[in-house]
Predict the structure.
Amino acid sequence: MAESVCRSLRDGALEGELAPTLTIKDSLASPFGFNVFSHILVQLSSQIVAGKSQSQGMVIVALSRSPSSYIDLLKMNGVDVESSKKWIHILDCYTDPLGWKDKTRKSGDITDPSNQILSSYKTVKDVNRLFSVICDLGRGLVGGSKSRFCVAIDSLSELLRHSSVQSVASLLSNLRSHEQISCIFGLLHSDLHEERAVAAVEYTSSMVASVDPFHHSVDGQGSNLGNSSRQNLTKGKFNVRSKRRNGRVRVTCEEFRVEPSGISFAPVSSVDGAAVAVAGLIPKVQFNLQLSEKERVDRSRVVLPFEHQGTGKPIQIYDGRRSLEDSNNEATPISGGKKEDSGRGEIIYYRDSDDEMPDSDEDPDDDLDI
Amino acid sequence: MEQQGLDLMDQALGFHSNKAQQQPWPLSGRFVLVEDCVDTSGAFVLHHILKRSFTSHPSSAVIFLAFANPINHYDRVLRKLGCNLASQRDTGRFFFLDMLMLQCPVEGEPNHDGLAAVFEKIERVISELSPENKKFVTVIIDDISCLELAANGSSNDAIDFLHYCYTLTSENDYALVALNHRDIYSDGERSTFKLEIEYLADILVKVDPLATGLAKDVHGQVMVLNKETQKQHGISSIKVHNFHFKIKENNTEYFYAGSRT
């Protein structure tokens, strides 16, 4: 449940325990992970400003979106970014992550004195240094050793691209173990990494929220949004797996809808879900290979060409037309000319058993005794 | 310049026929990724956007990074479409960066400075633009596969370069257009590269052959996925457009499937 996830992050860490960590996982089939990330960011920020959360500050590590977009996001949602009590700091790993810009100046990491809440970070491959910078910035926000801050990483996928799985996993572990960190949440695109990388990140998280498509495609081609159903373009499933302290795992499922104003969550509408699930299971083939009842009855009535009718009348060879009485008004079939010949011969066909299916694997002509 | 009738491609890319809604350059701040395959080339989309960028607004400029073809090729193609690249270059609206011979130096590991230098070049070109031409700048990359080759096959370096180009869209509201050959990256490990770029794209234009095979009157099909992204929130709505196309001598026709007699 999105609500309970936000609550866990708001409540933060107990003394001596690791900080709760949320990984939001999405894929191209339902690329709305950032909408969920923004939603949680805004919720937690409002609670920090209102003094209702354990965190008293937030450090955003911006790798895939510009810092200004986060400032605009918070302002648009009524969160005061420029309050006198500084509570937020954005580490800009987006604008110049590798130090390519202004190479001649080689300015290195700078904290622009005029902009209190923004620092640029230009060595994104150095994860160890990133950890110490995050901790320093956080301490700068909340001060003393008893106060805590939270950390938001907007793209764990970018971090994994720049450095190894081990480095990122150890960064998350170190952050979780830090005594002043209240909670951590980050976004991961699961289809960009090997399973072991995704698993490593999931293991270091106490909550994993998957953003899944509303309808899974049957033929496996739905990895691209363009091929999937219309509903996948605005809706999806939000599956949360959270690990409790006692080891128990809780799994919840909700539906989400993406709107221009943000994202909304609702319980799964079971009627839709069941009907859709069934529809999704029916394979899309062009042929109906099953027989209806009527078809079964008609098939049992078909008279086979060389089968002994046993009605006492002289055996007539059935040449594919209906009985002679019925055939007066029909067009002459091609085989009509052969009728005189076949009328003289006899073909006796005995079925092996009464319940032998008419088109079993045995060749019925094997029993011909001409 | 007179606003011509908008075709299906224009509408799918976000051009509006209603002048009141029309932004000067609807691709501002957006990354358009064109994906094609061996069977059907998507270069015509690049040519279309290139031509549109000159006709849309008198203050627009184009920075063209050519990894795949020399300038004569584009000159010939655009001339057929009614656009003179040479005169655009003379008036300071078209900058052609010939990357055909670019090979990033190898020093044991791929040298990041190779592509960093290319980006520096782009920044220099932008800084030297006249103020009125700086407003609506489009950066076009043809194509990403050749860019990766120039980076000695390092997909990470190629993505870093694309990321830096992408920051131009968010920081300066420029447009970024790039062509990628989808089928090179269709299997297993290599598909991650394609997916990374698809995540980055705001508008995805997929060019495919017809499922039924070659045809004289229809050369292929296009799917345009336009993520109406509010950069703050992420994706707020997605519009999908599907139509067919036929490439003719002097233009490309776009029409809905089945509407051709």
